[in-house]
Amino acid sequence: MAHEQAIAAIRETLGDRITTSKSDLDLHGANETHFAPMPPDAVAYPESTAEVAAIVRACAAHGCPVVAWGTGTSLEGHALARHGGVTIDFQRMKRLLRVSPEDMDCTVEPGLTREELNTELRATGLFFPVDPGANASLGGMAATRASGTTAVRYGTMRDNVLALEVVLADGRVIHTGSRARKSSAGYDLTRLFIGSEGTLGIITGLTLRLQGQPEAVSAGICAFDDVGAAVSTVIATIQMGIPMARIELVDAATAAAFNAYADAEMPEKPHLLVEFHGSEAGVAEQAERFGEIVAEMGGSPFEWSQQTEERNRLWKMRHNAYYACLASRPGATALVTDVCVPISRLAEAVEETAADIAASPIPGPILGHVGDGNFHAALLIEPGNAEELAIAQALSHRMVERALKLGGTATGEHGVGMGKTAYMEAEHGAGWEVMSAIKQALDPENLLNPGKLLRGN
Amino acid sequence: MAHEQAIAAIRETLGDRITTSKSDLDLHGANETHFAPMPPDAVAYPESTAEVAAIVRACAAHGCPVVAWGTGTSLEGHALARHGGVTIDFQRMKRLLRVSPEDMDCTVEPGLTREELNTELRATGLFFPVDPGANASLGGMAATRASGTTAVRYGTMRDNVLALEVVLADGRVIHTGSRARKSSAGYDLTRLFIGSEGTLGIITGLTLRLQGQPEAVSAGICAFDDVGAAVSTVIATIQMGIPMARIELVDAATAAAFNAYADAEMPEKPHLLVEFHGSEAGVAEQAERFGEIVAEMGGSPFEWSQQTEERNRLWKMRHNAYYACLASRPGATALVTDVCVPISRLAEAVEETAADIAASPIPGPILGHVGDGNFHAALLIEPGNAEELAIAQALSHRMVERALKLGGTATGEHGVGMGKTAYMEAEHGAGWEVMSAIKQALDPENLLNPGKLLRGN
Q1: Rounded to whole angstroms, how far apart are CA atoms A201 and A60?
Q2: Minimal Cα–Cα distance from A20 to chain B, Å?
Q3: What is the tally of structural domains in chain B?
Q4: Are the beta carbons of B307 and B248 closer than 8 angstroms?
Q5: How many CB atoms lie within 10 A of CB B127?
Q6: Do B60 and B104 share a domain, yes or no?
Q7: B378, containing H or E segment
Q8: What is the DSSP code (8-state) at residue B319?
Q9: Is A428 domain-assigned?
């Protein structure tokens, strides 16, 4: 009833850009992983910050939850309407508002996706480096503190957002940060909203750091007999200060999946996929020096190239890893884990995880952003098979416990959402209560994305 | 009276490590800049986190303010006891607790200074890169989100702290972040406490990212006819992706001060001081390419070297810039400004500032971390001369207004403290109210460093 009143009030502003059609509700109640559908009561399509503020004010007046929706590619149920309410879909707010080549920054609306941004930037010589795999919206990437293959060089969303425009729970609009590269002017509200998963405010604008497209790129691949040797190679490379733009680990099971899915002809062993960005001479030197380290660590010869086609083939294969893994068990869905540990503990974390999966009845190829100590197992289960889901959840649970014991985190880049709240107390202790105190201060009625990230929410 | 009760309660735990001697109070009521002395009622010297928590609990029980003190090198009055109370001096908590060469991280107590840390790290091949000039404590550097000459390459304290231990206003101890390189596990409390200036909690431990000591370093200097050409050189260098470890601008007045103070024999023109870190071949290539850009922009020949002695001479001169500027007006004290703007607006910001200073009766050499768009004017005034202080404050005021108009910030690295609160509403709008709401949630009695950063505090 309250929700209906909110929807009626929003309709006065948005007209037919708020809908309650079943197909729209179903679409926005679905997710890419194993969570049950949770549709909202309505879906709104605002075209401006003022309209978002009007939606939030109407919801606040009637006690109606508000959930922000980018592309729906979250893996932890972030954008599901757990308590119904209004989902704000940002597909009509995807403009690139401003680019400054001199400052290497730009301002975008939250619905713009990273691939769309990079297409628009192509002629400028600049690019936005954060690459979580999915063609996610930039607002959603900020809200979940996304990262991916390039974080080892360029950082995560935390490092690549200069400023935000945010609609607060009471409809006020604030601007955090500035276009200055750094500031000591008070609490870091930008970083507070990045990763807050829509629970503290709705992001309606982002000012992003951009990078110059590298003059040259080299990339290559090599195999190791075990994960330990691969990780030792990564550690030595970082210690020598060789700047990697990407360094990805895939295990033997993932290599096998690549062979089947993409005719990759890889030995069924752990591999590193590596990329360097820099000057022509620089990336050649870096690849050569990396190859020397690989040889010392007993890896297969590091085959690298500066040719665009060969690089694209390599990273297309990596980007399709999720689908390659899915295809390795036809008809399967995946529960994707996401722990991150100090890199000195990465080999044991991966090896113990692999042994645990091998002792279970379900397959779980492992791949990871090894320069950051972050890795995923794609636990492949039959849709609707409760027993397999329980086994996958138990495997995931043990991965998280292992990661926390090793000084790591329950989620390196996917976020908390609905899937990881159970671990927040173990990971943060009283810090989780501090998060709740901040939530209470900024959203006392708990209307912004309720049921996510926080305790009893 | 309340303060006396708190002091008595603390004495039960700390014995004679809490003192009310006049010399101690005076020392902790002083500052390096123009603020009037504001001594606390007592100074405590804890030796452990548990003792810090006991101090805070005693202060909370009796409504007594608590101020954290590192080395007292703040330039905005951060550590002054504006409302009296107990100052916690961390000089007995300065241990390096742990170093992991494989993870390139370490854990320290907050009183350890950055130079002390780097001395302890020397044998490991690692170093901590953030360099604000002063030999500040690492706890203080985190609390003020310090940066300095190397931020263009290595980032600020925001980027180089992985995890914190914090004593909250009620004496609870929390651990934020982890040793994992990245995480999406909830609100970014680490970044919230970094830059919170002791108003949300007392930092009692820090886990820091370290860097490998570069295999090779090249550094050099060149002059330009005007600031615009120097800034254009920096912009072009960044756009070409040439990674600078430091790039510092000094204006003609600062060059003159160097000549007088350090026999520098520099033409009295704007200069860039630049450093590159990398492999032997890499830093040579970078210096050569930078030299080409300088030549295109009409600068003097870029003289560079990989020799340690020449580099040390260059950076020693830069590090002593504050003293060189002070010496250029014998007996003077300085009001040091600290704006930061988008780099495309830097030339006009510097040039308008220089013209404004030139039209005033007081000298103000300008120098800056030009790769970040951050610059300082050292406004040299006669101690106790109220008229000159007012002129300097008016110059500083116009610098801040200009910076905000250009999309920048009132403080790039010095913080808010007592000196910049007047600009927070203009810079943050309703965001400043959000900061107050967070403060209210975490420190409802306003006992942690009252009178700083926030409105009416």
Answers
A1: 12
A2: 31
A3: 4
A4: no
A5: 17
A6: no
A7: strand B374-381
A8: H
A9: no
Per-residue pLDDT tens over the stretch B153-176: 999 999 999 999 999 999 999 999
| Alpha-helix runs per DSSP H in B280-320 | 280-296, 308-319
Which amino acid makes up residue B454?
Answer: L
The answer to whether position A453 is within a domain reads: no
Name the residue among B102, B104, B442 with its Cβ closest to that of A437: B442
Please indicate whether, in this complex, the C-beta atoms of A187 and B156 are within 8 angstroms of each other.
Answer: no
Q: Largest Cα–Cα distance of chain A, in whole Å?
A: 69
Coil/strand/helix, residue A248? strand
Is the ipTM here above 0.85? yes
What pTM was estimated for this model as a whole?
Answer: 0.97
Strands A86-89 and A42-44: parallel
* B183 to A415: CB separation less than 8 angstroms, yes or no: no
Strands B18-19 and B42-44: antiparallel
Do B317 and B334 fall within a single domain? no
Q: Which of A175, A194, A407 sits opposite B188 (nearest CB)?
A: A194
**Mean pLDDT for the stretch of residues B89-115:** 98
Report the percent of chain B where pLDDT is more than 90: 93
Hey, are the CB atoms on A180 and B420 less than 8 Å from each other? no
Cβ contact B241–A102 (<8 Å):
no
Name chain A contacts of B277, Cβ cutoff 8 Å: 241
Interchain pair B416, A125: CB under 8 A: no
Nearest to B182 among A241, A413, A429 (CB): A413
Domain with residue A391: its CATH number is 3.30.70.2740
Domain hosting residue A339, numbered range: 325-415
Inter-axis angle of helices B280-296 and B227-239, nearest 10: 140
**The pair of three-digit structure tokens given for residue A273, joined into one six-digit string:** 């996929």
Going by their DSSP bridges, the two strands B86-89 and B66-69 should be labelled as parallel
Select from A304, A322, A340 the last residue of a domain: A322
Per CB-CB distance under 8 Å, the chain A contacts of B338 are 184
3-state secondary structure of A299: coil
CA distance A315 to A305: 13
